[in-house]
Amino acid sequence: MIARTENARRAEGQVMLAHPVGLHARPAIKLTKLAKSFPATVRLRADPDAPWTDAKSIVKVMGLKVPQGAVLYFEAEGAEAKAAIAALVALVERDFEG
Amino acid sequence: MTERVAIVIVSHSADVARGTADMVRQMVGEEVAVAWCGGDPDGGLGTDVAAIRAAIDRVWTPAGVAILVDLGGAETNSEMAVEMLPEDRRGTVVICNAPIVEGAIMAATEAAGGASLAEVCATAEELSPGIGR
């Protein structure tokens, strides 16, 4: 399930993490590398009430230990925010393949 | 385009060093240059200054080199290897204070994104809270 809201330089998205082992090392690395490729600041969290985590920080993302079945919430601000959210949601949707 | 920071892995065990390099390549990708060395010249556990120097030389780039080590001797010998580098390269090679496997993966992930040597090392060192350089 995806919901996207955006205004000029801000975008949000959410997607369920279906990957069998959750957000473990390899998917976390892919997610971080992808987030870093965008100029916007990108944040994520697995709990809508938890503080945001910097999606460009590999140590922090890996430390989240997000399990399979959790919903990932993304937020991006700045240039290419919408593209960043779209790309990250797509990465999770295709189970981090490619 | 700026070159990426390179990673050198120095372990007392060649198996550990080689395996760590494999993990970095497979999990992070091929875009970060990785060199490894481990074991003493007789094939036992230990580290060797000349081997460390050769590993640095294999991957050195103006962007810098981050060295990950396991135990004290690896750090000491790595420091000696850095001292042996030409003067214009000495300042571009740093030893990160991080666990060798996890640190190498975090450092390489950061390096893959084009981060500076300082950022690469700082990321690896995030894994060791409370231990300052």
List keywords for this structure.
heterodimer; A: 98 residues; alpha+beta; Histidine-containing Protein, Chain: A; five-stranded antiparallel beta sheet; 3 helices; 5 strands; 33% helix; 24% strand; B: 133 residues; alpha/beta; Rossmann fold; four-stranded parallel beta sheet; 6 helices; globular
Tell me the fraction of residues in β-strands of chain A, as a range: 15-25%
| Count of helix runs of chain B | 6
Mean pLDDT of chain B: 94
CATH topology of chain B: Rossmann fold
> How large is the radius of gyration of chain B?
13 Å
- Helix percentage range of chain A: 25-40%
Biggest sheet of chain A: strands side by side, in what order? 1-2-5-3-4
How do the strands of the widest beta sheet of chain B line up side by side?
Answer: 2-1-3-4
**What does the overall shape of chain A look like?**
globular
Helix content of chain B: 40-55%
Assign the structural class of chain B, choosing from mainly alpha, mainly beta, alpha/beta, alpha+beta, or little secondary structure. Answer: alpha/beta
Number of domain modules of chain B: 1
CATH class of chain B: Alpha Beta
Q: Write the H/E string of chain A, N to C.
A: EEHEEHEH
CATH architect. name of chain A:
2-Layer Sandwich
Low-confidence segments of chain B: none
Number of domains of chain A: 1
CATH class division of chain A? Alpha Beta
Task: State the CATH superfamily name of chain B.
Answer: Phosphotransferase system, mannose-type IIA component
Within the CATH hierarchy, at the fold level, what is the topology of chain A? Histidine-containing Protein, Chain: A
The span between the termini of chain A is 21 Å
Compile the SSE list and pairings.
The complex is a heterodimer of chains A (98) and B (133).
Chain A: E1 5-7, E2 10-16, H1 25-36, E3 41-45, E4 53-54, H2 58-64, E5 71-77, H3 81-93
Antiparallel strand pairs in A: 1-2, 2-5, 3-4, 3-5
Helix pairs in contact in A: 1-3
Chain B: E1 6-11, H1 14-27, E2 34-38, H2 49-59, E3 65-69, H3 72-83, H4 87-90, E4 93-96, H5 100-112, H6 117-125
Parallel strand pairs in B: 1-2, 1-3, 3-4
Helix pairs in contact in B: 1-5, 2-3, 5-6
